[in-house]
């Protein structure tokens, strides 16, 4: 079996979309679909249930996911560990970050480390879904829910607030919802089938009394872009909504507040460069507290 084929399987399984998988892999959606089809033919079984809303793992696909995911993590960890014992100056650190929090809060602040620690190199995994924790997966993980397993040291470093927002243009055209019951008369943007167990997806469904979504997506960036374009209302983190000048709606409804957890693989306990990055991320979150959370 070709490992590259399994990389296509893993990517699609994580994003539930051949289009997004193609962007991540640097190929066309048709190439992704063809490689998945060829893999399924060789295995003699369907790995995905293919629907208009995306690609979702079949029973067979679910059955092999943890094994393939762990195999990938082991390969990547081996590469990083060998780099630490080589003569090369580069010291790699793999970090898993929540989407948007990573993109708009943490990653821009890594510039300071590039200046002070030029030997450190980064691999960033930026996602909405929590991946299965493995001590040989990411060296550092930032999560918005307390992990229940995994060989990581864990500590709480802050909180994040999320609420419902729309653009000024949307308010001008559609008006402000008078109450949560009025959500049925507005254009709602939310998560697709594969993401509806996310705490934020459940919170938004409760806020809008289960009203139908006009637009379903599998990632935060598409929701953010849609809200900024004036299409509708979505649940977004406070810091990114304020950055783009969005307006909060349903203000009487309690925002979703989550703890921010900083985790470190026990396999990296002797790596000084991971110590440096860990402390830097903690300082970033603490310094941005007023931007990230409501008072």
TrEMBL record:
Record protein name field: LysR family transcriptional regulator
Family affiliation: Belongs to the LysR transcriptional regulatory family.
GO BP annotations listed: DNA-templated transcription
Listed InterPro entries: LysR-type_TF_proteobact-type, LysR_HTH_N, LysR_subst-bd, WH-like_DNA-bd_sf, WH_DNA-bd_sf
Lineage of origin: Bacteria, Pseudomonadati, Pseudomonadota, Alphaproteobacteria, OCS116 cluster
Pfam family, one: LysR_substrate
Keywords associated with the record: DNA-binding, Transcription, Transcription regulation
GO molecular function: DNA-binding transcription factor activity; sequence-specific DNA binding
HTH lysR-type domain residues: 1-58
């Amino acid at each position: 079996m070709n490992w590259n084929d399994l990389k296509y399987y893993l990517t699609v399984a994580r994003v539930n979309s051949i289009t997004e998988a193609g962007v991540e892999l640097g190929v066309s959606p048709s190439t992704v679909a063809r490689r998945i089809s060829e893999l399924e033919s060789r295995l003699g079984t369907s790995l995905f249930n293919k629907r208009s809303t995306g690609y979702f793992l079949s029973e067979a696909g679910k059955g092999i996911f943890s094994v393939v995911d762990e195999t990938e993590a082991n390969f990547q960890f081996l590469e990083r560990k060998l780099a630490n014992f080589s003569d090369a100056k580069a010291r790699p650190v793999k970090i898993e970050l929540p989407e948007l929090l990573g993109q708009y809060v943490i990653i821009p602040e890594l510039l300071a480390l590039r200046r002070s620690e030029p030997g450190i190199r980064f691999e960033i995994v930026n996602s909405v879904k929590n991946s299965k924790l493995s001590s040989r997966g990411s060296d550092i993980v930032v999560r918005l829910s307390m992990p229940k397993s995994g060989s990581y040291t864990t500590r709480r470093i802050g909180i994040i607030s999320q609420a419902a927002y729309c653009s000024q243009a949307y308010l001008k055209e559609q008006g402000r919802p008078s109450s949560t019951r009025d959500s049925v008369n507005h254009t709602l943007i939310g998560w697709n089938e594969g993401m509806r167990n996310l705490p934020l997806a459940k919170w938004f469904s409760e806020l809008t009394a289960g009203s139908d979504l006009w637009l379903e997506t599998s990632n935060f960036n598409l929701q953010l872009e849609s809200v900024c374009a004036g299409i509708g209302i979505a649940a977004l983190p406070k810091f990114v909504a304020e950055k783009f000048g969005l307006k909060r709606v349903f203000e009487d409804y309690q925002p979703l507040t989550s703890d921010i957890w900083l985790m470190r693989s026990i396999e990296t306990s002797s790596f000084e460069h991971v110590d440096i990055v860990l402390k830097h991320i903690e300082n970033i979150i603490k310094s941005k507290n007023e931007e990230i959370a409501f008072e």
